[in-house]
Amino acid sequence: MTVAFEEKAVLEFKGRMLMMTVLLLKDLDPNTLHRQVSQRLEDAAQWLRDAPVVVDLAQPEGADQVALMAAVDTLRGLGVNLVALARNEHLDSDTAAMLGLGSISLAGGRDVPRSAEPAPQAEQPADAGHTLVIDQPVRSGQQIYSRGDLIVLAPVSTGAELLAEGHIHVYNTLRGRALAGVRGDQSARIFCQKLDAELVSIAGIYRVAEDLPEQHRKQAVHITLDGDAMRFADLK
Amino acid sequence: MTKIVVVTSGKGGVGKTTTSAALATGLAQRGHKTTVIDFDVGLRNLDLIMGCERRVVYDLVNVINGDANLKQGLIKDKRVEDLFILPASQTRDKDALTLEGVEKVLEGLKDMGMEYIICDSPAGIEKGALTAAYFADEAVVVTNPEVSSVRDSDRILGILSSKTRKAERGEGDIPASLLLTRYSPERVERGEMLSVEDVKDILAIDLLGVIPESQAVLNASNSGAPVILDSESDAGKAYEDAVARFLGEQRPHRFLTANKKGLFGRLFGAQ
Question: What InterPro entries does this protein map onto (chain A) (predicted)?
Answer without folding.
Answer: CAP/MinC_C, MinC, MinC_C_sf, MinC_N, Septum_form_inhib_MinC_C
